[in-house]
Amino acid sequence: MKSSAPFLPTTRKQMKQLGWDQCDIIIVTGDAYVDHPGFGCAIIGRVLESQGFRVGIIPQPDWRNKDAFKILGKPGLFFGVTAGNMDSMVNHYTSERHVRDKDAYSPDGQAGLRPNRASIVYAQKCREAYPGSYIILGGIECGLRRFAHYDFWSDKIRRSILFDAKADLLIYGNAERAIVEMARLLINQQSPQYTKIPGIAFSCSEIPETYQIQEFSDMDRKTLDLKQPSSVIKLSSFEEIKVNPKYLSQATYIAYMATKPGAPSLIQKHDNRFLWVNAPPQPLTTQEMDCIYNLPYARLPHPMYGKSKIPAFEMIKDSITLMRGCFGGCSFCSIAMHEGRIIQSRSVESVIKEVKAIKKQSPKFSGYISDLGGPTANMYMMGCGQLEKYLECPRLSCLYPKICKHLNTDHSPLIDLYRKVNKIPGIKGAWVASGVRYDLALKSSEYIDILARNHVGGYLKIAPEHSEAHCLKLMMKPEINTYEIFERQFKKSSQKAGKKQYLIPYMMCAHPGTDHKDMVALAQWLKNKNLKIDQVQIFLPTPLTLSTSMYVSGKHFNNFKKSVSVPKGGRARSIQKMILRYHDKNNWDEIRKILYRLKLSHLIGYGKDCLVPKNIKLLQI
Fold first, then answer.
1. Which CATH fold would you assign to the domain 459-466+491-621?
2. Nearest to 430 by CA among 405, 454, 395
3. pLDDT tens digit sequence for 479-525
4. Best exposed site among 112, 517, 578, 587 by fewest CB in 10 Å?
5. Which pTM does this prediction carry?
């Protein structure tokens, strides 16, 4: 067994120190290189290293210069290309299309160290530097753009990123198994085309006759058959979606329903070729999760950065990932299409081992774990009690509209983990900074008590998103009374613990199906609770979510004949944000105009239900 490198090499000199003349695999990433399990590039690099492969990293290369992609030479097997932990366009631009002035994944937060659509640019530069190289795309940018998709920043339907990047293969979601299997295939000079390797996508010129094609137009909730292993499911083509965006809504819905381990592959025509996307991998076992997160990470940025700080690392350096996946199914969220709906949890022993590693390796460790969580804070060790029937399940969410009767909602494994972490010598506390799914938490009053007593430092983030029932229905979120029940329970638990603590509700505006009147109702709800929120999330139509399909098509995601109103254009979207910030004096003139237009002028004045005061200047005239 080869010993692990302190850091994976980023220069020829570092390769030489390891006794390497060539890397087997070179990962090109849009993020700074931080050897920490919170960074996807580090996880994949360390997993490959653990399997005996020589892995190098090229972090944030100068994409204007092909020589920057030659710094480690030509890889023996392939280039692995990723934009980083975030989609590069989300990283660069706000939901109002304003350019961000900071990049949390770059040294000292410096913006501009990666290009727009970084995966495409990097892949093309790798090809330019070394023609004939094998190129594999990965990461969230590529994974969510694996099909024909809507691109908010250009306001266009774009092809699968596999075609635009001219790459050989794409791996989406949890890539650990697939990337190792691909490396072994390439050692033996075998092609992945038509293989059953889960979680990969490739292009091909034809569909073998051995496969039965389930035609898109024949499908609905009843006829979609996910138990035919010898079939493929044909989505509307890129050209069809480009001409008529309603097909995006249908394709997204079918892809969402069919993205389950063991389901048939999905195919989509792009000009004269097919995109072929295999089903996602089976969920990682607890043993596999433990192996991945207990690899020998340095838990630090690469020494090349000197005294510069990587803001994203500073935020998560003392946090611990307990699980992957989310079965919540919020329509605006992409986690289900990236990490999957089946929860993959680590063992208590693995988590304790990482806590001890943080104590030992983290400079100036404060004694506090900044987060024990994952995509959602409280789904640890939970899941479906009938997984053998998972392919037959017609539900988009295990929690909406009501919590499924087959779902295991037992919080006791998580409570036990919290208690054991708190008992580790030198640990003063462990916070929960990940979002708590409050409808799930209501299944365990003991969990809420322990959360309030030991794991909240004054404020707890919660995301009800809206107050109006029809808006929440389109978001696939529980009704607002569920939040209010949790709010009362959390307050009671905090008082019992002798602590004064508060919920920070996260709200969203400009989601499909919401109008100005809905936002006024939400603003009234906030005012009645004496809440003045400054952080308002404007809905961002990112690729491969059900909400984005509604934004583009104006059709409901599972009732294609039902129209949905969509607030589009910067003006309409920003007005909704203004309404939620009713307490900001700079918004009062605009809000008054809106209230008059909506015939809600009774909300202007000084009464307890009024959102904004009267215009004093006009009264004086």
1. Transcription Regulator spoIIAA (3.30.750)
2. 454
3. 999 999 999 999 999 999 999 999 999 999 999 999 999 999 999 99
4. 112
5. 0.96
